[in-house]
Design a protein that fits this description.
6-stranded mixed β-sheet; alpha/beta; two-stranded antiparallel sheet; Uracil-DNA Glycosylase, subunit E
């Protein structure tokens, strides 16, 4: 059975999930999307409002930012697989200070919600079996490595995720930590060469170079790269 079929069966098994309370408020289960044969898996935290409406991961503002970095790094969305730690949108009711009106906003998933969705996460990773996992933000990194981390210290470094094998041996995946695009949206320091946008650009370039190295050493495929041009174009678009 090919990976696309396996993912389709897994999606069907989770599309009506009721394992945690998020099923009561969600519009759609956001399972994941992308190339079933992807060498790179990108993991975020949880769906937001746009993702909840569409059932597709990273289609809101954070998705636009992610797509910009993917294009600049010559890793288009249809060549990677994107999913979140939890498949349903976690929400909380807040009060607007000016009007006093209640409104619904996003929140981080709870420990119980992450545990309820962990089987889906692990089975998806098992199925795709990527060469590299990019963890976007603290929640994603913690879900893969098993503890809470400070992203400012962890980003730009590669760590190892240990998973029990389906038979006996342990499976290990390299995990590259990066800032979440939603964090970048709140920190508009485009012109700062030491700021989070430039750091993230360098992190994606590292991911692209690692993938190129794997393609060359494992498959004998020598890629033509244009990372510097793509990065410059991304920065120009961002400044506009």
């Amino acid at each position: 059975m090919n990976k696309a079929k396996q993912l389709s069966i897994l999606r069907d098994a989770w599309i009506n999930c009721t394992r945690c309370g998020l099923c009561k408020t969600r519009k759609n289960v956001v399972f994941g999307e992308g190339n079933p044969d992807a060498k790179v898996v990108i993991l975020g935290e949880a769906p937001g409002a746009e993702e909840d409406r569409s059932g597709v991961p990273f289609v809101g503002e954070a998705g636009t930012i992610l797509d910009t970095f993917l294009r600049a790094s010559n890793m288009p969305r249809d060549n990677v697989y994107i999913l979140n730690v939890v498949g349903c949108r976690p929400t909380i009711e807040n009060i607007d200070d000016a009007s006093g009106r209640a409104f619904i906003t996003n929140r981080a998933p709870t420990k119980e919600e992450k545990l309820a969705c962990r089987e889906r996460l692990l089975q998806t990773i098992y199925t795709i079996d990527p060469f590299l996992i990019i963890a976007l933000g603290q929640t994603a990194l913690g879900a893969l490595l098993g503890r809470t981390y400070i992203m400012a210290k962890m980003r730009g470094h590669v760590y190892t995720m240990h998973m029990p094998g389906k038979v006996a041996q342990e499976i290990r995946y390299p995990v590259l930590a990066m800032y979440h695009p939603a964090f970048l949206a709140r920190n508009l320091d485009y012109s700062n060469p030491e700021g989070v946008w430039y750091q993230t650009g360098r992190d994606f370039k590292m991911a692209r170079e690692a993938l190129s190295y794997i393609n060359l050493k494992v498959f004998g495929i020598e890629e033509e790269q244009d990372n510097e041009k793509g990065t410059r174009q991304s920065e120009e678009n961002t400044e506009d």
